[in-house]
Amino acid sequence: MNAEPWVSLEAIAEHLGVSTDTVHRWIRARKLPAHKAGRLWKFQIEEVNEWVRSGKVGYAGSGRER
Prior knowledge:
single chain; disordered C terminus; alpha+beta
């Protein structure tokens, strides 16, 4: 079984087509599945894809949920 590699904040922002500021906002709102490794945020793409598929991305961090 191959473990999925961890990706950076910049890579996940590019994957989602959003700015790094948006990713930071989603992390602060505790919406986006993110893991801290020292001072760096790390992500697993499949975990983030599932978050998007679940519809939780909505208005994450804006105070308005769908």
